[in-house]
Design a protein that fits this description.
- The complex is a heterodimer of chains A (about 120) and B (about 130).
- Chain A has 5 helices and no strands.
- Chain A is mostly helical and about 120 residues long.
- Chain B is an all-alpha fold and about 130 residues long.
- In chain B, helix 2 runs antiparallel to helix 3.
- Classes of the chains: A mainly alpha (about 120), B mainly alpha (about 130).
- Chains A and B meet through helix 1, helix 2, helix 3, helix 4 and helix 5 of A and helix 1, helix 2, helix 3, helix 4 and helix 5 of B.
């Protein structure tokens, strides 16, 4: 792929990733991972690792705006945040052991159920 | 408090498995803990940032980060996120919640299609 064409695609994808992160506070990874796999030809692990690296500054930027726009008291939510960190470390360990297909199916079902419930 | 911790763990596990940082945490916070949509998104962002700092350090040590593409995507992502986040302030919690619900359903459908395609490919190879 020509370098210029690839760079343009990356710019567009970057804008899309930022858009979802700014609008929803998440979901950017869903655009980022396939982008890296398809256009940058990164292998699975590198795609996920680079995605986390990309999402960090993007999330920090969104976070600052969200915090300053809403009344956010860190200590009210410290348990949720601690839980997330712990869960993240557990999840990373499980990643190697779990059957990817089953996990993906469960995840898709949960998203579908969650989405439908949010609409009503 | 305990429920929040538990939900945080579940959300974190999903994130740790590379399944999309906040995508399940946000609906869990709104559906089970009664969070407003914007508050749920804010907490999720903070949780993700804290977690991601550790994760990125580990990935960096393992040499798994592609700096070239990562930098381009990050720069434009940040600009886009800032503009979008500022604009999102004018959306109501209710509207944002509905949009997010639709977003999750779309993601779920894409995920199902992707799983189905992969199954087909595997079966094809075995023939």
């Amino acid at each position: 792929m020509k370098k210029n064409k690839k760079n343009i695609i990356l710019i567009i994808c970057g804008i899309a990733i930022g858009f979802f992160n700014g609008l929803f506070g998440g979901g950017g990874g869903m655009v980022c991972v396939p982008t890296l796999k398809k256009f940058v030809k990164l292998p699975q692990k590198k795609a996920h690792a680079t995605t986390t690296f990309i999402m960090l500054p993007i999330s920090i930027a969104s976070m600052i705006i969200y915090i300053t726009s809403n009344n956010f008291v860190f200590f009210d939510y410290v348990w949720i945040i601690l839980g997330s960190v712990l869960g993240g470390l557990i999840g990373a360990k499980i990643l190697n052991i779990a059957n990817n297909k089953i996990v993906a199916i469960i995840f898709a079902i949960l998203m579908l159920v969650g989405g439908i419930r949010l609409l009503f | 408090m305990f429920l929040g911790f538990l939900i945080g763990i579940i959300g974190g596990i999903v994130a740790g498995m590379g399944m999309g940082g906040g995508t399940l945490l946000i609906p869990m916070l709104t559906l089970f803990l009664g969070f407003e949509q914007k508050a749920a998104q804010t907490v999720t962002l903070v949780a993700f940032v804290v977690l991601a700092i550790f994760v990125v350090i580990i990935h960096f040590k393992n040499g798994l980060i592609d700096w070239k593409s990562g930098t381009i995507l990050a720069i434009f992502g940040v600009i886009s996120a800032v503009i979008t986040a500022l604009l999102t302030r004018s959306l109501s919690n209710g509207t944002l919640k509905t949009l997010f619900g639709i977003f999750l359903i779309v993601l779920a459908v894409i995920e199902f299609i992707s799983i189905f395609k992969k199954s087909k490919e595997k079966k094809g190879k075995n023939c």
